[in-house]
Amino acid sequence: xxxxxxxxxxxxxxxxxxxxxxxxxxxxxxxxxxxxxxxxxxxxxxxxxxxxxxxxxxxxxxxxxxxxxxxxxxxxxxxxxxxxxxxxxxxxxxxxxxxxxxxxxxxxxxxxxxxxxxxxxxxxxxxxxxxxxxxxxxxxxxxxxxxxxxxxxxxxxxxxxxxxxxxxxxxxxxxxxxxxxxxxxxxxxxxxxxxxxxxxxxxxxxxxxxxxxxxxxxxxxxxxxxxxxxxxxxxxxxxxxxxxxxxxxxxxxxxxxxxxxxxxxxxxxxxxxxxxxxxxxxxxxxxxxxxxxxxxxxxxxxxxxxxxxxxxxxxxxxx
Length: 319
What we know:
The chain is α+β, with helices and mostly antiparallel strands.
């Protein structure tokens, strides 16, 4: 059977104004890049909104495209391109997969067309498919750094100091200094609310209980990151440069125990940053079943580390 058109229409959501939730984030004895004053010191006009906040805008589009499977075996993989500050409007786009594929192209833009992120989204447990995701492809193209300065104590293959880290996310549970808010706080301002995220509505979900929004999986996994033992030189200011969240036997549930295991899978650098690419595997805390994983490009700004130039020279770094 022939088709009238040779392309599939792009799905796009409405413009949204995501909210800043990390103004009070605190680590390594200082505020983070999300604090307005800290952002100003780095030449930014305001503290940026955390990258995975934008993942919520894709959920309705990807649920429309993939159905319930999106919350069970979905994988969203994104390279963050430009920061968004509170008050700016963002729109999410999804290009459905080509015939025979289950991987979609995704991107987000500000109202003026500025790119926010680009990436891929897919469903299924096919490892070969995941190997074609945005983050997997970026890792495959990395060149090993010649001499890291801030991250010089880290090694590829290094595992977390505490294995496993035990975490959970209750509705009113404060998630610590890294994430100084609760799931209830987030649900009051999330760009795409769903009854499945709530105690009342979750009972009517396909899984019979409340599920954790995909953007909040990043918070769950980041809440115990201080236990990882992945130490950098500092003080220095970090940011998320890219991120992949993959559900394997999802969804993840509110107020359910999980165990985390971390590993550094790559190290890299650019002119402005050093990056540790960290895989976090998520196990059900009761059954020890692997249920999800995240790969995070945790980048740190060279210019935010006062001793960078002098230590680079002492280490013999030439570029």
